[in-house]
Each structure stands twice: as C-alpha cells, then as structure tokens.
Amino acid sequence: MSDRQSLRQLVRERRRALTPAEQQVAARQLLAQCQQHPRIGAARHIALYLANDGELDTRPLIDWLWSQDKRVYLPVLHPFNPGHLLFLHYTATSPMTRNRFGIPEPEFDELRLRPHTSLDILCTPLVAFDATGNRLGMGGGYYDRTLTRWQSHQEGPLPLGIAHDCQQVETIPCESWDVPLPEIITPSRRWCFEAR
Q1: Are 146 and 122 in contact (CB under 8 A)?
Q2: How far apart are CA 169 and CA 12, in angstroms?
C-alpha cells in the first residue's frame, strides 16, 4: 500500500503544479474530446464530478451537456451507507453543500436521486492511470464499489475515466478490488482498452 500512497502523492503534486492557464486549456481540450465521443453524444443521463485538488475541470463539459439537453448527475456520499455513493440530478440552481472531505456536492434530496445503474455514462475522477486502463483513486474505494456490477457483468453505466495527461504512469500496483476502466479521456486523446 505504501507504493500506492507514494504514487498518489507524486501524481497529485504533478496535477496541482499545473498553472490556471494550463488547467483552462486542458478543460477546453477535454470538452473537444467529449464532443466527438459517440457514446456521450447518444447519452441522456451522465454522471460527472466537480474538480477538486487539481483535477481536470469538468465545468465547461457540464455547461455543454446542459446546452445539449442532457441531464447531469453528481456523486453524493451516501448518508446511511458509509463508503458508497449516490448520484443526484445537478442543475445550475442546485443547492450545494460540502461533504466531509470538503468536496462540493448537491444537498441530499431524494426526489433528485437517480440509481447509478440507470445512468448512461459514469465519468470517474482518478489520481493516476496506466496504459492498460488501471485506475488509482484516492483510496476510499467509492467508485470501485459503485462499479462492481460493471466489472462482473458489464452492466450499468459505461465508466469513463477523466484525467490530465500528466496523470499517466508506467504501471499501477493493483489490488483485487480495483476496477479497471474500459476508457480514459485526457485532453490529448481517448484511451480505449479491450473489453475486460
């Protein structure tokens, strides 16, 4: 686990070192990649996240999805089931709060909830990735738990990782619970991996 922690620290420092101008360019390039993505074009219900700790800014993408009449959902820490996520419909007027990690999320409202299995696409943040689709998250396992049905049956929303190019590493030391991704989108390219 110490190797994973060292890798997290290294890559988080890399992405935090990006300048505001570099972050803006990366966000525009991410948007361009996503605008050309056939599955995103066909999707109606898309889960994203708000950038934190140097993550790639998803706001331009969210604004574009809204302009295309697509519904955007954000993750919320499950209030009754620790270690799990819920996904709430997110609009420009959604009341927001900060979760226990200091990350903005919509205020819990059962009426805005959508089961993650009925999403079309679930965009996941990540700390690092390698050229075979392995993803290293922050260590809480939230997205790995969310994607267990995808891993075992290829059921549920298509998981797409989103990352800066500088988050690619040579290899991720994997654990049994890690869920590799079928695709990762960076500002410069789409990484597509063979069906698992």
Answers
A1: yes
A2: 12
CA atoms within 13 A on the CB side of 175: 12
pLDDT for the residue numbered 2:
67
In tens, the pLDDT along 95-119 reads 999 998 888 999 999 999 999 999 9
The residue-averaged pLDDT of 146-161 equals 77
Angstrom CA distances, 164 to 49, 142, 153, stand at 15, 21, 29
Burial of 48 (C-beta count, 10 Å sphere; 0-12/13-18/19+): buried
Residue 71: its H or E element: strand 71-77
DSSP state of 37: -
User: In Å, how far are 85, 105, 141, 167 from 82, measured between CA atoms?
Assistant: 8, 16, 11, 28
| Domains of the chain, earliest start first | 2-192 (3.40.50.10420)
What predicted TM-score, i.e. pTM, was given to this entire model? 0.91
